[in-house]
Amino acid sequence: MFVFANADNGGRHDVRKDRYRLNDGQLLSRLMRCPDQGGQRHTLRSLAATTGVSKSKLDSMTHGKQMDVTGEQAGAIAEAVGVARGALFTPTAFVIANANALKGENR
């Protein structure tokens, strides 16, 4: 989710993007191997199919490389492995100070 705030900062727009950081890739791997309520264990492929998060992104996460996802993705992953989102992920937020710089409109 993007939130644009036009603060009194000389015409710049601040962009806030909510993200969630995976606390522990090894924990996610262990949870994938535990059967869920229906008795299913997850592989990277099945977790990707269930959550809509790419297999390569999930692989990177389980190996501690790419740890940030959107709130929607974090919720889907946590639900698929049968835990609360807060058990796996920590909310983070970052602000891009000058959104116009992203468009090449430096002032």
Automatic annotation (TrEMBL):
Native organism: Actinacidiphila polyblastidii
Protein name per UniProt: HTH cro/C1-type domain-containing protein
